[in-house]
Design brief:
The structure holds two protein chains of two kinds. Chain A contains 22 helices and two strands. Chain A is an all-alpha fold. Chain A has a domain of 251 residues. Chain A has a two-stranded antiparallel sheet with strand order 1-2. The two termini of chain A are 14 Å apart. The relative contact order of chain A is 0.09. By secondary structure, chain B is mostly helical. A two-stranded antiparallel ribbon of chain B has the order 1-2. In chain B, helix 2 packs antiparallel against helix 3, helix 4 runs antiparallel to helix 21 and helix 11 packs antiparallel against helix 14. Chain B is globular. Chain B starts with a helix and ends in a 6-residue tail after the last helix. In chain B, 61% of the residues are buried. The chains are: A mainly alpha, B mainly alpha. The interface between A and B is large, with 51 and 56 residues.
């Protein structure tokens, strides 16, 4: 760990927060109506610039936390303003920084843009704060803070049943985090009883010794919050309502960024703090992941409403992330982390496109739409690309992540991976069906006059398209940064649980995905007994 | 020459030395009250509201200053016991003085606008509030069960009258009668508890009781435990812990709104202060006996408060149940029976005071003339009409809910930490789960404010068809929320129209005039909101303040 003179990470959290305050304080009557949106875009652009700077300064081979900053926040409570970034959080931060300006520009609020932009910026601060916090209470604060702006975004600017969706979302996720707080406090006090120091900092708390039962209970308390937030089946019931009733911006941010808070929480906190319990309970979580994949896909097939269809497909994709995570292999975990990034980009693009369709046609019911590709060819083209990425067609980003997840799972939990494969096929089924219904066929009078994407809209979605293609062709720069941190995490889990992943799982995935020969030294054929000696390079780091 | 003088001296009754500084805030409060009464009966005309507000706020500020002086005195010279051991002069006591004087100040500001609007005259409300506050202060520094009782009665009797003070509303009188009768019962039980404790230990002085219990092993302590149980019932009544909460929804609903806020804040501060001191200082050695009882009270208050609040459509009743839920949270700190637990409870009470007085200030304002507009429907469209007031209310509600970066979160964090530290993990989990349930009704109120205004009293109608729809939808997905929705109706849902992209429903043509926010009330609300947010983001000053407010004996 090393500190940088300029507190980049603190700046990253505070920039949108200050932006939110400024936007809220500029009175609406004095300025033109676009002014607040411009301010919002400026704040998110500054944040994005800082995030890119962080990514540039990020040391690739280092698996530990970088650019940390640590200040006492409430001394007598033992809470610290402790931020840090590693390969796991780096791309989530970047993704969030990219998605927020797109979310503001892509779907503008119909009324009161001042309040809307202000809430969105506050949400960005909370999301970035959650990804960067290394102090558990600080994380919890940001994690909870995300609820307030989201609640107002859904409730204030959503569709017909917005109030119901907003309260349901809030109460479900708040109930989940109730147990998280108790869990955090309990871990800290168990740690204090062992060391005499009251702290909530993750790097210190990973050394807490927990008995089997304690570990399992605490794991469940933490996972309850993350599983609701993600959402993981069967805690997903709030999400189709919230995704469908939220305004487009809200759907993008809910599915693109906030869903990752749950899966990120599992990787960052569950695996680090409770490796033993994570290992013991992995089959349960794997099963839930697979059920999520299949259930999400099957229910998505039955939807007649594009937004709900995408909402259920999101459940399926999050199932893949959970699957990769609890495979507890380097490959699976890296795939899971990469898939978080991929899913964020793809689902944001999908919701954006659906939002634009609805804006033009006044509906996102599949039955109201037909033959749009004639009148809106560019939109159809982009939709095709994004849809194919979501299905997981090779050459686009979805494939790389899903492949790593499935192969990482296959070597240790063969049958789960095979069951999950069915989800990939179903995804092709429902997405292609929806595409056919909406874009193919002969349009009726109303659909024939649909406006194609304007230049401003093409510009807004362009970054997502470029990233989707780029990550599909050349994911190596991303994987190179994710791998050391994942290696470190897997090594930590293995050290505590006295297990070892099969050697094949440590194969450098860059080679798997792109064909460059960057293979690891030892790669016994699978089915062989676990490799006896892992390369020391991947074990380094934690004592 | 000297002997006759000596004889005279010997004949006088020996009075204890009185450290006036230790009871200065109490004296100031009582003095202010007496001054107001005397002046109002001497002048020929009826005393103007401005003058009584001025005297009441000046008295509160003076008491606050005196309490701050006390704080530095205690910090410099350490805690002590004065007036023949009847009064404890420690950080804990001073903390209570500061809390109560702040609550009194805020209430005086809110009451001013209320009295003007209702066309009331005379200084009675302020006088009674000052007296009641002095009772709460006395409870905070009582070092003897008799003095606790004295404080309790001063607090309560003034509150009974205050509850009845709106003679235009029948509910006000009804509330007061209910409060008086049940309060009388609980006082009697409390006194009987004191008697039993005295019988078992031979003293009513808290340190002496502790001393007795430390030195003697009581083999058969049935009488003592019975006394303790009765004391707990008395306190439980005052803090409105379940199952001694029956009075509070009716009384909260019926009392004049500013008084309800005062009652929620000051009665809780005083009663919890005395509860903490009595149980921690005197009966600390018996904690294994009383902890389970507190555990039960806490669980019941948490769950019953949160669940029953869900179905309320009267905002003041809702807040009464919310207050019961908060009492459960504060009991978490008591149940821990540790130093951290005490400071966590103190912090909770202190921050809750601002949230609840501010909340009732908004409720007072929204209720309009006659103090009657307390239905959820009265809040519809508030955000459109008066965005600042609505935003302030949302902040106060979020603080009560425990949202991050408000004092409410830190308060919940502190008590949960204290409970976890005492290994009461289950209790901590129940508490947080109840907070999640409570989130529902706070948000329901927030959503009502942000939804378009409906005709007053239309909430049931407006909610009827969507609530059926949401209940049906929820039944498929989550039974808990579905139940809540079915019970509550959905105050904000609009009838779903065929087009998915419904624009905002046009504003119905109803009387949606703005409510007047008197400047002093606005100032009080601003103070409460500022406190809630500033010390939510910069928690150290208040957290450290509560941590330093230690008991003389624990």
């Amino acid at each position: 760990m090393h500190t940088t003179p300029f507190p980049f990470l603190t700046f990253l959290v505070l920039a949108p927060a200050v932006g939110a305050a400024v936007v809220a304080l500029v009175p609406a009557r004095r300025v033109p109506s676009w002014f607040h949106e411009a301010l919002g875009v400026l704040a998110t652009a500054v944040t994005l610039a800082v995030a890119v700077t962080v990514a540039v300064r990020f040391k690739t081979g280092d698996g530990g936390y970088q650019m940390t900053s640590n200040h006492v926040w409430a001394k007598s409570l033992g809470i610290h303003w402790s931020l840090g970034i590693d390969g796991i959080s780096l791309f989530l931060v970047l993704m969030a920084a990219v998605l927020f300006p797109i979310a503001i520009l892509g779907a503008r609020a119909k009324r009161n843009p001042r309040a809307f932009v202000s809430w969105v910026l506050l949400l960005e601060a909370a999301c970035l704060g959650s990804f960067l916090s290394l102090d558990l209470v600080l994380f919890f604060l940001f994690f909870e803070l995300t609820l307030v702006p989201t609640y107002f975004i859904i409730g204030g600017w959503g569709y017909a049943r917005r109030g119901f969706a907003a309260i349901k979302f809030f109460v479900y996720t708040f109930a989940g985090s109730a147990f998280l707080l108790v869990g955090i406090v309990s871990v800290a006090f168990i740690h204090r009883s062992q060391t005499g120091v009251l702290t909530f900092e993750l790097p210190a708390l990973v050394h807490t010794h927990l008995s089997g039962t304690e570990g399992v209970l605490l794991f469940l308390a933490f996972t309850a919050a993350f599983a609701v937030k993600a959402p993981v089946f069967p805690f997903h019931t709030w999400s189709p309502d919230a995704y469908a009733e939220a305004p487009t911006t809200g759907s993008i941010l809910l599915a693109g960024v906030m869903a990752k808070l749950g899966t990120y929480g599992i990787i960052r906190f569950d695996l680090n703090l409770f490796p033993e319990a994570s290992h013991t309970l992995a089959p349960i979580l794997l099963t839930l992941g697979v059920i999520g994949i299949l259930y999400g896909a099957v229910v998505a097939c039955a939807q007649r409403d594009l937004k709900r269809l995408v909402a259920y497909s999101s459940l399926a994709h999050l199932g893949f992330i959970v699957l990769g995570t609890f495979a507890l292999t380097t490959q699976g975990l890296s795939g899971g982390v990469l898939q978080m990034l991929n899913h964020g980009l793809v689902i944001a693009a999908l919701f954006l496109l659906i939002g634009w369709i609805a804006e033009r046609r006044g509906s996102w019911k599949v039955s109201h739409l037909r033959g749009l590709q004639l009148s809106a060819p560019v939109m159809a083209g982009i939709f095709t690309l994004v849809m194919l990425a979501s299905i997981g067609v090779p050459g686009l980003n979805g494939f790389v992540g899903e492949f790593l997840v499935l192969s990482g799972t296959f070597i240790v939990h063969r049958w789960w991976a095979i069951a999950a494969l069915a989800g990939v096929i179903l995804a092709a089924l429902y997405l292609l069906w929806a595409y056919q219904q909406v874009f193919h066929g002969t349009p009726d009078e109303e659909n024939r006059t649909t406006r194609d994407l304007g230049w401003s809209e093409r510009l807004v979605i362009a970054p997502l398209v470029i990233l989707i293609v780029f990550l599909g062709i050349y994911p190596k720069p991303v994987l190179d940064r994710i791998t050391p941190s994942v290696d470190r995490l897997v090594a930590h889990v293995e050290q505590v649980t006295h297990t070892q992943q099969p050697g094949v799982a440590t194969t450098r995935y860059a080679s798997v995905a792109t064909g460059t020969s960057h293979a690891a030294a030892t790669a016994p054929p699978h089915g062989a007994p676990p490799a006896t000696a892992r390369t020391t390079s991947s074990v380094g780091g934690r004592p | 020459m000297t002997s006759p003088l000596l004889a005279v001296a010997a004949a006088t009754i020996h009075t204890p030395h009185i450290d006036y500084l230790s009871i200065l805030p109490v004296l100031i409060m009582m003095g202010g009250a007496v001054l107001l009464v005397v002046v109002s009966s001497l002048v020929r005309k009826v005393l103007g509201i401005s003058i009584s507000t001025l005297v009441a706020s000046a008295t509160s500020v003076a008491a606050l200053v005196a309490a701050v002086v006390q704080w530095y005195h205690v910090s410099a010279h350490g805690p002590s016991v004065t007036i023949a051991g009847a009064v404890a002069f420690d950080g804990f006591a001073v903390f209570v003085q500061i809390a109560v004087s702040m609550a009194m100040l805020l209430t005086a500001l809110v009451a001013d606008g209320y009295l003007r609007r209702e066309g009331a005259d005379g200084p009675e409300l302020h006088v009674l509030a000052l007296l009641s506050a002095s009772g709460a202060m006395l409870m905070g520094e009582a070092n003897d069960l008799i003095v606790v009782f004295l404080g309790l009665e001063i607090l309560s009797i003034a509150l009974y009258v205050l509850a009845a003070s709106n003679h235009k509303r029948a509910e006000s009188g009804e509330a007061a009668l209910k409060y008086l009768i049940l309060g009388g019962f609980s006082s009697a039980i409390f006194v009987y508890g004191i008697a039993l404790v005295y019988g078992a230990t031979g003293s009513t002085n808290l340190p002496e009781i502790a001393d007795y219990l430390a030195r003697n092993f009581v083999a058969s302590n049935g009488v003592l435990l019975a006394g303790l149980a009765l004391l707990l019932v008395g306190f439980g009544f005052k803090v409105a812990a379940v199952p001694f909460h029956m009075w509070s929804p009716d009384v909260y609903q019926g009392s004049p709104s500013p008084i309800t806020g005062f009652m929620a804040a000051v009665a809780k501060v005083g009663a919890f202060a005395a509860l903490l001191r009595v149980f921690m200082s005197s009966f600390g050695t018996l904690r294994t006996d009383w902890q389970p009882a507190i555990w039960g009270l806490a669980v019941l208050s948490l769950v019953v408060g949160a669940v029953l609040a869900l179905s309320q459509t009267d905002v003041k009743r809702m807040m009464a149940y919310s207050s019961i839920n908060h009492a459960g949270f504060i009991l978490l700190g008591v149940q821990a029976a540790t130093v951290q637990g005490v400071s966590a409870s103190l912090y909770y009470v202190f921050t809750y005071l601002f949230a609840v007085v501010g909340t009732f200030a908004v409720i007072t304002v929204v209720a309009r003339d006659g103090d009657t507009g307390h239905q959820l429907a009265d809040y519809r469209g508030l955000a459109r009409r008066q965005p600042v007031l609505a935003l302030a209310f949302v902040v106060l509600l979020l603080a009560q809910l425990g949202a991050p970066f408000t004092t409410g979160f830190l308060a919940k964090f502190e008590v949960v930490a204290a409970a976890a530290d005492a290994h009461s993990y289950a209790l901590a989990a129940v508490a947080m789960a109840s907070a999640a349930i409570a989130a529902f009704f706070y948000l329901r109120l927030a959503v009502a404010m942000f939804s378009p205004p409906g005709p007053v009293g239309d909430v049931a109608l407006a909610g009827a068809s969507p609530s059926g729809q949401s209940a049906a939808d929820g039944a498929a997905t989550g039974a808990g929320v579905a139940l809540a929705f079915a019970a509550a109706g959905d105050p904000f849902a609009e009838p779903a129209s065929l087009a998915v992209l419904t624009e905002e429903a046009p504003e119905p043509d109803v009387a949606t005039r703005r409510v007047a926010v008197p400047p002093l009330t606005a100032a009080a609300i601003a103070l409460c909101v500022a406190f809630t947010i500033v010390f939510g983001i910069v928690p150290a000053p208040i957290v450290d303040f509560a941590h330093q407010a230690t008991l003389l004996l624990h």
